[in-house]
Amino acid sequence: MFEYNKDKHYPKETESRVVIRFQDCDPLQHLNNAKYFDYFFNAREDQVPKLYGVEMIDFIHKYKAAWVVYNHNIAYVKPAKVGEWVRIKSRLLWYNQNTVVLEYYMTDDSSKELKTLLWTTMRYVTIKEGLSTDHSGAVDEFLQATSENVDISDMTIAQRVKYLKNKLKES
């Protein structure tokens, strides 16, 4: 069961290394556009328990609330190809009292070339009523500890793509 620990360091970014599977590719041997979502969500689901010590189902049971997706914004930059090893990174980019924006991005194996960027926006809702509710207590503290808290109010996904591409080239 999740307990926020104020003395623990919570990394801001998760990372997984995965291979692009043949079964997930189109006839051009590119990862199918819809499959990017599976790769992103599976990578985060694998990493969150390791880095933060929490299974999302435990979080849901304890706080009787969950985040539900209401928007995706995706930019396909370079195709991921069958058999290619890639890096999938994710982070809590921004949040407020009842909403979070997760950022997922895929790079080549050397983390030099951006392939895809996804922003997923989710609202925090009660399980019983399905109504929006505010983050509070340990949930809010956890979000504070793990969020990049980037001001995205005037940022487009195209601007973020440009920023990440430049950042990857510099590293």
TrEMBL record:
Top-level taxon in the UniProt lineage: Bacteria
Pfam families listed in its UniProt record: 4HBT_2
Protein name: Thioesterase
Phylogenetic lineage: Bacteria, Pseudomonadati, Bacteroidota, Cytophagia, Cytophagales
